[in-house]
Amino acid sequence: MAPPDLESLRLLVLVGEFGSIGQAATSLGIAQPSASKRLSTLERRLGLVLVDRTRRGSVLTPDGHAVAGWALRVLDELDGLLTGAEALRSQQEAQLRIGASMTLAEHLVPGWIGELKRSLPKLYVGLEVANSEQVSELARSGEVDLGFIESPGRPRDLVARKVATDLLVVVAPPGHPWTRRRRPLTPADLVATPLVVRERGSGTRETMDAALRRAGFPAVEPLLELGSASAVRNAVTTGAGPAVISELAVARDLGDGRLVRIPLEGIELGRVLRAVWPAGRKLVGPAAALLALAVRRLPG
After folding, report:
1. Does the record bear DNA-binding in its keywords (predicted)?
2. Is 6-91 CATH 1.10.10.10?
């Protein structure tokens, strides 16, 4: 036996409430002949007489009352299903999970989030800060809806979209011998001097090492290996040694004279900052809105 359609069940329940096929049809927004036809089809499908049609109106038969009671439970369960699904969808649409590498998390992503929340004030945003390699893995596994990384190249299994550009610069504390140089540094100078560097897996470290390889030089020798741009910056300002670091992270220190930018030639340290998400998955909702907002901020 094929199951009855839901609209016919609603119609039967309403006939029981109104005692009239016409009023039940009006309540559902259908014509009375169509309602009568639906009820006749339902009776044939179930093999039961459900409605006693008289000149004074239409009432449910005993079998009709029994079927209408079961139909009401079915319809209530369906309403619960739809309400629950809507609640789940609303919850998903009101949440955004982001992963961001250190430089992006400190200097760019908060501004993007703030602008997004002005248009979506009820949106809850969770931000996980890690290095670029870890953020890529979070995006790959679906633990975040959208990742922002600063590594060179495109990680495997991820779609990547340019959202900003950055430049790595050589900085040293005032009084360091490099601040008295008359000529720019060369890649050979960098690899010959231990530097304060980020940890392996960070976008800053990968960008620097890749640039040196392209210029035919080995990786630098670490003086200190630290887990954030802030830690590198603090180490340099306290006199630990020179570093290669994002210009975004030290712009204020350079302006205030706490750090000195050292000219460098023979190597390109510009980089592209990217949003990433799993290949084959289309961004929707707040994740798509945040990406669009970041892309709009790009210089023309």
Report:
1. yes
2. yes
